[in-house]
Fold each of these.
Amino acid sequence: MKSELVLFGKHINMASRSRRRRLVVVFYGVLGALLVASWLMGSHIGGGFITIEFVLFVGPILGGYFARVSGISGGRGLVEPFEAQKVLKYPKSATILRPATLLRPVVDDDPELRRDERSLRRRDYAHYVSHGYLRTVLSVAFILEFLNHSPLHEDLENMGMSTGSVDRVVYFLLQIGYILCMTLPQCILLWTEPDMEMEQA
Amino acid sequence: MRTDFILLGTRINIASRSRRRWLVALVYAAFALLILAWCAFDLQSTWSWILFCAFAILARFLGGRSYDNGLLPAFEGGDERERYRRYRAGYIAYEWLDLAFFPALIALAVKINPHLVPANPAVHIFLDRLPIGLMIAVGILYYTLPQCILLWTEPDIEAEQ
C-alpha cells in the first residue's frame, strides 16, 4: 500500500491509519449522498449513472480494482493492484475450443510486479470479509424480486408497492451492491492496515 | 473435506479432484437447467419452490459457511492452512461474482427503463424475466462458489496423504 496520495499533482500523506479511515468515511459519505440524490432524481431514468460516474472518477484513488484506471490520481491509487502480474500473451496452444488453455496465459515475471505473501493474504482476507458484507444487500434484493414474481406480489401491491416500484428498489439495491463489490475490499484494506511509520519502526 | 457422501444409499467416493470437478460441473449444470425451466414456464409455478428446495439442499450438501455436516467443514474453525485456502477461494469467487453482478444490473436497468418497451411480446416477456433469472444465478454463485472453488482446486486427497 502506498503511503502517499497524489491528487491533482498534490502529494498527500496517507501513512497514518486515521487519515485513511477518514478518506474511507468521506468516500462512502459522498457516495451515500449521491445515492440519495439519484433516488430522488429517479434512478430508473438515468439518475443512477451519477454514482457509477463518481466511482469511476474517484475510485482510482483507492487503487485495487481501479489501480490501472487513470482518474484523478493519475493511475496511482493507494492500494496496489489486486492482480499484480500483467498478462502478456496466451500460449500458441491456446484455443477457444479448449477453454482451459485460455485460463493459463503467459504472465510477466518482472520481480517488481510480484507481490509478497503477506500482502496476498491481506488481499484475500479483505475479499473474504467483503464477500460476507454483500450478503445483506443481495439477500434483500433477491427476496424482493422473487416476491415480485411470486403469487405474493398481490400482497406487496396491497402494501402500496407496485411491481414497478419494487423493481426500482431492487435496481437501487443492486447498484449499491455493485459499487460495494468494486470498492469494499480496498476500503477494508485502507481501514485495517496499521500506521505505516509504526510498522517501519 | 469429506472424501465420500451417500446418495440414495450408494456411497460415492470424491477423494480424487477429477471426481469433485465432475460433481461441481453437474451441480451447476442442474441449476442452469432449473433456472431456464423456471423462467421458460411460469414464474409463479411450483418450479420456484423446487428451485428453492434444491438450493437449500445444495447449501447443506456442500457445507462450508455455518453448515457443519456437508462436504466441507464449517468456515468458522480450521487450522491456518485451511483459513488461507478459504480466503483465497473467497478472493477468486469475488471476481466471478463481480462479473455475474453486472449483467443482472444491466438487465434490470433495461427492464425498468420506460423508454425501452419492446413491441414484440416475446421480447417483452424475455426482458421481464431475465433480471430475476440472472439474480437467481448471482444468488446461487454467491452462496456456493467459494465452496465449489475449494472442491475444484484441492488436490487428490489420497495423493496428499
Amino acid sequence: MKALYSLANPALFIKVSWWLLPPLWVATLVSFGAGLYMSLVVAPADYQQGETVRIMFIHVPSAWLALLCYSAMTLSALGTLIFRHPLADVAQKAAAPLGAGFTAICLVTGSIWGKPTWGTWWEWDARLTSMLILLLIYFGIIALWRAIEEPNKAARAVAILTLVGAVNIPIIKFSVDWWYTLHQPASIMRLGGSAIHSTILQPLLVMGLAYFLLFTTLLLVRMRAELDERKIRRIRLLAAQEN
Amino acid sequence: MIRALLTRELKLAARIGGGAELGLMFFLILVAVIPFAIGPESRILAKLAPAILWIAALLATLLGLDRFFQADEDDGILDLFLMSNTPLELLILVKAFAHWLVTGLPLALAAPLFGLMLSLEPALMPSLVLTLLIGTPTLTLIGMIGAALTVTLRKGGMLLSVLILPFTIPALIFGVAAVNSDAVFNVPLLFLAAIALTMLVIAPVASAAALRLGRE
C-alpha cells in the first residue's frame, strides 16, 4: 500500500511513466497490427452483411473504452474529492477528451455501419442515442474544465459533475432503452441474436486490448503534458509576482 | 431560519420583477411561437402538445437558473449560509423550493390553458398537470447543481445548459410518456416520481458540495 502511495507522487510518476511509455507504445502498435490483421483478413465475412461487418471490430471496442474511460474518471473524481490527490485531478482532466474521442469514434463508425445495414446514416436507435448523450456529457465536462481557470477549483467542480453523471448515466441508459421500445420502428435488422462465434470473438478481444493499451498510453502522455502545463503556469505566476 | 429564508426568497422574487408573471409570459410566448413553425393544423399540434409544453417548461425553468446563486454570491449571503448552523444542503433545498413556487408551480397550474391553445385532448389535462407538478421541481433540482457549479463564472448561462440538459433527458422521456398514457396514474409517472425523489437526494448534496469546494 505504501509503495502505491509513493507511486502517486507526481515527481515519481513523471520518472516511472517515462520508462513505461516506450514499451506501451510498442505494445499498442503490435496489438493494433495483430488485431487489424485478424479482423480485416482472418475473420470471415458475415453471410448477411458481407464485408461491412468488419466495422464492428472498430466500433464495439470504442464503445467499451468510452464507458471504461468514464469509470476511470469517476474513480479519479473520488480521488480528487476524498484524498485531494493532485494526480487524480490530472488523470481526470487527461481522460475527458480521450473519452469524448472514443465516444465520437463509436458514433461515427456506428453511423457508417448504419448506412449499409439500416439504410440511413442516423437512426434514433437506443444504443446510438445513449452514446450520443454520453458524448454530450463528455462535452459538458470538457467545457467546465475550460471555463474555470484555477486548476484545483476546476478539478473539484468537474469531480462533482462527473459523480453526478456517474449516478445519472445508468438512469439515462435505462430511460432511453425504455423510450426506444416504446417508439421502436418495425423494420430494423437486428444484429447478432445467436452467441458470438469464436472467429469473431477473438479479433474483437484483441482489438479491445489494442484500444485499452492505446487509452493507457495516451492517458499517460496527456497526464505528463498536463503536469508540465501546471509547472509552466506556476513558473509564470511566480514570474508575474516578481515583476 | 428556514421560514425566514423562504419569505426572503419569495419577497425577492416578487419585488425584483420577473417572479411568476415573467415565467408565465415566457411560457405563453413559447407556446405562441411554436405553431408558426409547425403550422396551425390542430391535429398535428394536438399530437405534439405534450412535447411542446414539456420543452417549454424545461426552457422556462432553465432560463432563470444562472442567477440562482449569483445574487447570493454577490451580496455575501452565501458566506452566511456556509457559517450558519443550519446545514447548507437544507438551506439550498429551501431556495429550490422557493424557486419552484414562483416558476414551476404557476407553469404546472397554467398548463391546461396552454394545452387548450394547442388543442390537447381534455382527457389528458389531469395527467399533464400532474406530470408538470412532479417534473418541474425535478428540473429545478437538476438545474440547481449546474447553478452551483457555475456560480463563480461571469457568463454561466450557456455553460449551465450544456452541463445539465443531458441529465434532464430521463425526466423529459417519462414526463411526455406519462401525459400520453391512458391512465392518470401510469408506469411512466411512477418512474418520473422515482427520478424526482432521486434528485431530491442528489441535488442538494451535490450543489452544497460544489458551493463549499468552490470557495476554499
Amino acid sequence: MGQSIMENLVYLIVIALALGGVGIFGLFWSIRSHQFSDMNGAANRILYDDDFDPGPKADNK
Amino acid sequence: MSASPGQVCSHCALPLASVSEIINDPGDPELRFCCPGCAAAHDLVAGFGLDQYYQRRVLDADARRIKPDDSQEGLEFSLYTEEKEKSGQTQSTLSLVIDGFHCAACGWLIEQVLARDSRVTWGRVNMTTQRLSVTWDGPADQANDILAPILKLGYRLFPFDVERVESERIARETELLKSLGVAGFAAANVMLLSIAIWAGYSQGMGPATRGMMHWVSALIALPAVVYAGRTFFRSALTALSAGRVNMDVPISLAVILTSAMSLFQTIVGAEYAYFDSAVGLLFFLLIGRYLDSRARSRARSSAAHLLALTARPVMVIQADGSTISLRPEAVTPDMTVLTAAGERISVDGVVLQGSSEIDQSLLTGETLPVTVEPGDAIYAGTLNIGQALHIGVTASSSGTALAEIVRLLERAEEGRARYVELAERISRWYSPVVHTLGLATFTGWMIFGADWQTAMLYAIAVLIITCPCALALAVPAVQVVAAGRLMRRGILLKSATALERLAEVDGIAFDKTGTLTIGHPVLVGASSSEDLQAAINMAAASRHPLSRALVRAGQEQGLKPDTSRPGDIEEIAGGGLRARTNGEIWLLGSRKFCEIPEQTGEDNNGPGPQLWFTRRGHDPVCFSFEDELRSDAAEVVLDLDRSGYSLAMLSGDRTGVVSALASRIGIRTWFAEMTPTGKYDWLSEKEKSGNRILMVGDGLNDAPALAAAHVSLSPATAADISQAASDAVFQGDRLMPVAELLMVARRAQKVIRENIFFAFAYNAICIPIAVAGYVSPLFAAVAMSVSSLIVLTNSLRLGKI
C-alpha cells in the first residue's frame, strides 16, 4: 500500500511538472507571436463578426 | 444649401455650420459632406462595402478629424520601406504611425482596405500604439500606390522606424515578462511541494520522501532562479564592477546564497531547504519590475510617437527645376527646399522666394505666427501656415538649432539621472552592513566552538532573514500604485525618480501661454453681431489662429460664416485679409494693414492681440483677443498657495499681459519678457539657494528650464521636446492635475517611509534572533512572507485615498 502511494506520487509530480511546462511553453509562444503587444486590438477585434485573416505574419522579427 | 445646426459631415464629422459649400450625395439625401475629399472618401468606403465603419466608429474628440487633405502629397513612403528577397520574390515592409486614429473601427477599416489589395500579404494595425505595419509582394516603390487609399480616407501616415526607437525597450519588457512567467511557475510548484514537506514534519514523512521532494524542488527552482534572476544578477554585476552597490546586490546575493545552501542541504540530506524563499522572492520582485516598466514605457512610447510625426521627407529643388524628396538626413546645406503650406519645416535656412506666416509655437511657445519674407531666417520645427516657400538650407538634421536644443536637453537629463533614489541611498549602506553581519555570525559561532556547518547555517539564516524583500518592495510597490492612480487621472509619469523629487518640492514655477492658459486666443469684449457676421464671412477663408478664433466666437453666438458674400478674398501674409465686395474693399487684419492711425480706437495697448475690420460707411471695428485661462487655474493656484508652495510665473510675454494675468489668478511673483536663458538662470539660482522648484511649462523655450528644474511637468499639448524634457505629462484642459500630482507624490513618499520603517523594524527584531541561531526555517519563511505582504498591503492603500 505504502509503496503504491509513493509510486503515485512520482507520477503525479511528473504530470504536474509536464502541465506546468506546457503553460510556460504557451506563455513563451504567445509572447513570441506578439499576443501581448496589442492588448486593445485583441479586445476590440473580437467584437467584429466578419472574420478575416490579414495573412500570415511576415517573418520580420 | 445651408445646414441646420448640429449637422456634421458624414465622413469626417466636421460641423457643417462652418462650411460654406455642402456637398450632397446624389444617391442618399442623408449624406452630406464638407468637401469633395470627404465625399470621395465616403465613396471609397462604400465602394469597398465597408460602410458599417460609420456605424461602428466612436469619434475621439482629441484625435485629428479624418478630413482628407493634400498635406502628405509628395511624401515618398518608399524611402522608408525595407526590401527583402524571399524565395525569389521581392517583399517590402513598412512601419507607420497613424494620425487620425479614433477607435477600433478605424483600425478595422484600414485593415480591411489593405486586405482588398491583392499585393498586400500582411496589413495589421496595432490599436494600442496606433501603428500600422504593412508587407507586400513587390518592390519598395509601390509603397505610395498601396497606401494611397488610406490617405484618401483622410488618415495621415508617418514612417516610423521601429528598430531604432523601440527595439531595446521591447526586448527588455519581453525578457521581464518571460522571467515573470518562469518565476511564477516555479514559485507555485515549489510552494506546493513545500506545503507537503511542512505537513510531513508533523505527520512523520520519511527522510526518503522528503529527500525526493527536495530534489524535485531543486530541479524546478535552480533553473528558474538562473533564468528569472538574470535581470537582477546583471544589474548587480554592472554596479559592482563600477565600484557601487545597488539594491540588486543584496537581492542577488540573497537569492544565490539561499539557492546554493538549499542545494547543499539537499545533497547532504538535511531536514530543511529554502527553495521556496528564493523563487518566491524573485517572483514578487519581478511583478514590481514588470508593472513599473510598463507604466513608464507607455509614457515613453507616446513621446516616440510624437517624434515620428516630425520626421518627414524634404522636397528638394534640383538645379534643373525638378523636385525630388529626400530624407531630412540626406539634405545638405546650399540645397533649395520647397515647403508647402501647412507643412512642418525640417531644416534651418533662409527664405529665398515667397512670403508666408510661420507658426513658431514649437520653438517659442508663442501662439501667434510671424511673417517671413525673402532674406528672413527660418528654423526647423516651425510650421508654415501661409503659402509655399523656397528655402535655402543653412543646416539640416543634426545641425539645426532644434537638434542643438535637443542635445542640450539630453545633457541636462543626464545630470538629473545622477539623482540618487531613496532606495539606492539605503542599499549603499544596507548591503555592507548585512553582509558584515553574516560574516560576524559565522566567525562568532566558529570562535564559540560550533562546527563550520552549523556556523554556516546560522550565517546564512541571517542573510535570508535580512533578505531585502520587504525593503526592495518598499519603493517600487508604491511607485506602481501611484503611477496607476495618476494614469487614470491622465497624468503619465516618465521618470522613475519623479515622485520622490516631487515630494521634495517647495516652490512651483509656471509658464504662462499654454500652461496656465489653454494656448489659443479667444475673442473678448462685445461687438455688434452685424459687424461680427461680416467679419467672420471673411475670416472663414483663413487659417490664421486669430481668424479661426473669430469664427469660433461667431459660431458660439449662433452666427454662420458665409464666404460667398464678401466675394474674392485675398490673404496678405503678415497683414490680413482683403475682400472685394460690390466694388468696395473690406479689410480684416492688423492695425497697420487696415491703415488705422495709431491714436484712434479705444484700447491701444490692450493685453492681447487685436484684429481690425474696416468697411466703407462703417467705423473701424477692433476685435481684441485674449488667451483663455484654464477653467480651474485660479482655484488650483489658490489651493497650492494655501498648501504652502511658493508660486511664480515666468513668461516671455509682455509685462502688461503678464501682470494682468498674475493678479487675476493670484500669483504674486511674476516675471515678464523672460528669455529661455532667463528662465534657466532663474531656476538655477533658486536651486543653488536650496529651493526645490517644480517647473510647469509647454514651449520649446521652456525646455531648458524644464530640464534645469528639480522636477518638471508639461501639458500633453506641449512641444514634443518639452514633453521629452519633463518628468511627467498631464492631459486635458484643466490645471487640477498639477495639484493632484503633488498630493499623490507627498502621500506616496509618506507610504514609502512607512514601508521602509516597517522593513527596518522587522529586521531589528529578526536579526538578533537569527544571529543567536534561533531561526527555524518555518519561522524564516513565515516572517519573510508576512513582511512582504504588509509592505504590499500598505502600498495598495495609496490607490484608494
Amino acid sequence: MFPTELLVNSLAAGILLGGFYALIAIGLSISFGLIDVVNIAHPTFIILAGYIVYMLNLITGIDPVILGVSLSPIFYVLGVVVYGAYNRAFEKRGQEALMGLVFFFGILILIEVSLLLRFGVDLRTIYAPYTMESISLGILTMPLRLVYPFIAGLIIVLVLYLFFSKTFIGIATRAVSQDDLAVKLMGAKPAVIKSVAFGLSIATASIAGGLLIAMQPIHPFLDREFIGRVFAIVVLGGMGSILGTIAAGIILGVVESLTASLYGPAWALAVSFGILIAVLVLKPEGLFRR
Amino acid sequence: MKTMRFALLIPIVIIVMVIGAIIPLVVKISYLYFAGFIVLMYITLATAWNILGGYAGYVNFGTAGFFGLAAYLSAFLLESVGVSLPVALLAGGAISAALGLGIGYSTLKLRGIFFAIATLALAIVIQMIIINTPAVGGAVGFYTLRPPPPPPYTNYLEFLFVVMLGIALASIVTSRAIEKSKIGRGLIALRDDETAAECMGVPVFKLKLLAAGLSGFFMGLAGAPYPYYITYMEPISVFSLDISVNAVAMPLIGGLGTWIGPLIGAAIVAAIQQAVTVTIGSELNLVIIGVLLVAFVVAAPYGIVGLIRERIRRLS
Amino acid sequence: MSRMSILEINKVSKNFGGLQALRNVDAKINRGERFGLIGPNGSGKTTLLNVITGALPCDGGKIIFDGKDITRLPGYKRTRLGITRTFQIPKPFTSMTVLDNVVIPLMYASPKETPIHDVHETALETLRLVDLDKKANLKPGELTQIEMRKLELARALAIKPKLLLLDEVCAGLTSAEIDDVLSILRRLNEEEGITIIMIEHIMRAVMTFCERIMVLNSGIKIAEGTPEEITNNAEVVKAYLGE
C-alpha cells in the first residue's frame, strides 16, 4: 500500500530531522527541564541567531554552522544577562510562575517584532554548497542539509551529556534542580550554577540557529512553529534528561516525517502539538527519568 | 461596607450606559465611535484576560484565538445563516467559553506554563483551520454587510459602539462581582498557593475551570460584533498578534488582579497606540508595547494600580 | 470497625516512579486521641500525611474517615469533612491579610452550622487563640517565622476540625514556644475533642504530648505503641541511629 522506498526515506528523514530537533530542544531541556526557568522564548533566540548568522554570512561568506558555533560565547553571555534579570526580578520574589512567564513572552514579542521590522516577512535563506547535495545508499537518499545538522546535533547533545554527568558544575546543576539546600551546603551558590546552565542553554540556541538557516528558510515567526515541538520533546523525553531529549527528538521527527508523507506537510505541525497534549494528559513525568 | 460599594457601582454603570446610548444621537463625530469601539473591545478583552490571568494566575498567550473564533462564527451566522445580532453575540460567547473550558479541562491540572503554551498553540491551530475553511472565506477574506441600524440610531457604527459599551460594562461588573465574592477569594487563594488552597477546602480545579470559561466567554463577546465593525475580515488581521499581546500587556500595565487595572491599562495602552500610529507609524506599536510589558513586569509587576497603592501606603 | 476509631488506614501504599514511599501501612486512630508519627528523614511521614489529606492519591489500600471511605475523595472535600493540616514550611496566602487567610477555610470548609456573616468574627477569635489577633490586618510577608507558624495553625483550626494533622509544627521553636503551642493543642484536644496526628522530630514534644506513637522507616511501619514502649523498642533505636 505504501511504497517501500518512500517509507524508508521518510523514516530516514525523520531520524535525521529528529537529531536536529534534539539540538533545538536541548537548550529548553536544560532551562525548563533542569533548572525550571520557563523560557518560552527559547525558539525565538534560535531564530534570532539564525538571522544574525544570515547577516554575517552575507557580509563575510563564512559557513553558517561555523558562524553559529562562533557566536555561541556571545549568546552564552546573553543568557547569563537574561537569567540575571529573571532571577533578580522573579525568582527572588517567588513569582516565576506568572510573572516569569509574562517576562519571557515579552522578550519573545520584542525579538520577533524587531526581526520583523528589520527584515520583513520574507523568507531568508543561505546557500551553502552542501545544502543542495545528497548521499545515496541503495534506495536511501539522504539530503546533506539534513545529515549535517543531525550529526552536529548529536555531537553537541553528547558533549552536553558528558558535561552534565562528569563535570562539577554539571553535576551541581542537576543537584540544584533537586535540592537547593544541599547545594548551598556544598559551598556552591545555586544562582551562579543556574546562571551557567541558562547561559549554556542560550549558547546552544546560537548553534541551533546557524544549523537552522543552513537547512531551511527562516522568517520572524518561525519560532512559533517550534514552540510546540520543543516542549513536546522536553516533556516526552523527561524533564532534564539529556539522553531522553535525543530519543524524544527522534520519535517526534519520525512521526512528523511519516505524517507529512502520508497526509501532507500541513499536518506535521499538528503532530507535535498532539503529542504534547497526549503526553501531558497521560504521563507528565515523561518517558525517561532524570 | 463591601456590599455598599457594589451597590454604588450599579447606578454608575447604568448612568454610563444611558449616557453612552444617548451620545451617538447627539455627537456626530464618527471617528469617536470608530476608535471608541476598539477601546471598548480592548477593555473587554483585558478584563476577560484578567479573570483567569490576574485572579487565578494562569496566563493566556492566545487571546486572538478566542477572539477570532468567535468573530468568525459570528460572521458566518450573521451572513450565511442570517441570525440576529443578539444570537450571534451569544453564540460567539458560548463557543469561546467552550474553548476555555476545553483547554482548561486538559491543562489546568498541570503547571501554568502548559496552559500558556496550549493557548499559544491553539491560536495558531485555529487560525490554520479558518484559513482552510472556505465557508468563512479562507485566506481570501469574508465580507459582511451591515444591516440597517435599529432606531433611533441612524448609523450602524454608532449602534455597534453602544453594543460594545454594554458588553464592556457587563464584563467589568462581572469582574468586580467575582473579585469581592467567595469565588474571587478562592481564585486568589489558589493563585497564591494551590496546594494550601485545596487543603483549606477550596475546590481548586472547579474554580479554575469556572474562571477559564468566564474568561473565554467575554473574549468571545468581544469578538462577536467585530464582523459588522470591520465588514471585511481576513485571518491575518482578525488573529492579529496585537490582540494577544495587548490582552496580556493591558492588565499587567494597569494592574493584575483588580477589576479596575485592565480598564486603566486598556485606556492607556490604546491611547499610546493611537498616538504612535499617527506620529511614528503603526509598525512600532508592538515594539513599544513589548518594551513596556517587559519594563513593567520587571519593575512594577502590580501595574499602575500597584504603584498608586504603594504611594498611598507610603504616605499613611 | 470500632465506633471509637476516627481514621483507619488500611494497607496504604504509595509509589513514586520506582521509589516506594509507603508500603502497606496500617493504622487505626481513635477519636480524640493524641497520635504521634515519627521516623527518620525520608521515612514517608509527610507522604502519609499527604495521602490522608488527599494531596496525593495512594496506589493501594483504603482510607476510612469517620466510617466513610474517602480513598477516592478529592482533597477539598476531605477538608469539608473535617480534616485539616499544617505544612512543614508555612504556605500562607501571601497577597491577603492574616485575617483573610483564616477566612478562606471558614468560607469554603465550614460545617453548615456557621453562618457567613460570622466569618470575620470567627476568624478573629481563631487568631486570638494563637495570639495573632493584633496582626490581623498585616500581610503574611510582615510576620516573623514563628507568627507564620501560628498562622498555619490558625488556618487549620478555624473550622474546628475533627482531625488535625500537624507537620513538624514545633520545628525551630524555642522551648517556651513549644510549651505554648503544645498547651494550646492540648486544650483543643481536651475541650473540643479534636483528634491530633503529629509528625515531629522533637522527641520531647512527641513523648510528652502523644498518647500513642507510630514509627515509620523507609515507608514501612516498624513499631506502634505508647511513648514508653517506643522508647524501649530496639528496632526504633536502630532506625534512628542507623546501622
